[in-house]
Amino acid sequence: MKKQKARYSARLLQQTKPTKKTYFLLFLESMTDCFLNIFAIKTGLPRQTLPVPVIFFRYFIPVFLGALPYPAAAQSPCLAGRLAERNAMRFPQLAQKRQLLHKEMEPAGIPCNTAPRTVVTIPVVVHVLYKEAQENISDGQIFSQIAVLNQDFRKLNANANTVPPPFVPFAADVELEFCLAGRDPSGQLTNGITRRQTDWSNIGDLTAPDGRPRIHYAELGGTDAWDTEHYLNIWIGSIGGGALGSASFPGAAPPEEDGVIIDPRYFGAIGQVTAPHHLGRTATHEIGHYFNLNHIWGGDSNSCDDDDDVSDTPVQRSAYLGCPAFPQMSCGHSAMFMNFMDYTDDACMSLFTLGQKARMRAALTTARPGLMGNTVCSSTAVQESPERAGFHLTPNPSRDELWIHLKETPTLPAQITIYDVSGKVWATQAARESTASIRMDISALPNGFYLAALTSGASYAVRPFIRSF
User: Fold this and answer.
1) For site-directed labelling of 78, which of 225, 244, 292, 295 has its Cα 20 to 30 A away?
2) How far, in Å, CA of 409 to CA of 431, rounded?
3) Fold of the CATH domain 80-371
4) Cα–Cα distance between 364 and 358 in angstroms, integer?
């Protein structure tokens, strides 16, 4: 138990910037050890033979500490690892298939090729499963998530300039883009979104008696997958226990269950989203798993001997939570806690590395080649990468006014809406047919991170900006 206690204490200090609460809890734990030592001396009993009630008192403290919501969550925010283990038990043949895929993917991803590659657009279908009305997220919230993915996977995210200097040379444009599918598997036109009301609460992590996840099967209250060889399927459904989402690694799930699951509170950057995971980074993280990325610390052994199998991510003992100050030392060097594959808050995630890019591109070409080519994007929303989006913002950061510069004449009706990260609307302004630039007064906005959303006819695009004095 001493080893477990020391390991927990080190993790408590490592995972976040220590607070008074952190030090108090560790002090309380240490005091119980002192109490037991004094009790053993006074009674003349060896510590290991102390009465059961005394031993219980000593070990109640670590259990109490481990159950606290901060700094460690009651349940892992990401269930991808657990999902892979569960599927390996349900389908033992998948383990062998995944090993064969690994052998194919490894040469394709090494060495890291930093030369530009062809940008690949991934067709996405979003299946919304809801029991309560607030779980039936809006099209706008879904569009905002696609916009975030296109920023994060192209190194165009608004906070890309916050990557600490030692890690800047490793930050990568993954050259993957995403769009809602424009045609379904039968060739019919679609907006890439399906919706279904279900009778099941927490369907995102609910299994039927036969072991099948309900969310993946219409007959069990969920929605059947579209052809998983040619579409990235994302299921939106509530998940209990504090988890944010999960994903299937290449070859780690049967085709009917291959894809990503995300709780509606952590999908997108506007609408029904919940801080601190309210900027769309849960989908970025889970899609990393979908393209074969491990957590940056590797497995859950809490050991510096573990690794994520990526050469340019530093070895890290365990996950980081919250928004730590840089640097944080782990395994003898600075941890890359701002990586999209860690557990930090959305606002503090900012990069994939070149090695992670190589690994993802290898997964795409060897394990998920059907996603490439012949992509038909939905015409109901502007979902291009930010560098080709229908407008840009200046200045950014802004102080008192924000200019929205349109790249083409808007389709009426058109308007700009300013949201904060909670989804609250701060300002709206209509655009006229002859408008090339729109000026918006933002002097009343508090300092912070905002989203400017352009609605033009049936199209929708989102760009982030920062309001600062």
Assistant:
1) 225
2) 10
3) Collagenase (Catalytic Domain) (3.40.390)
4) 10
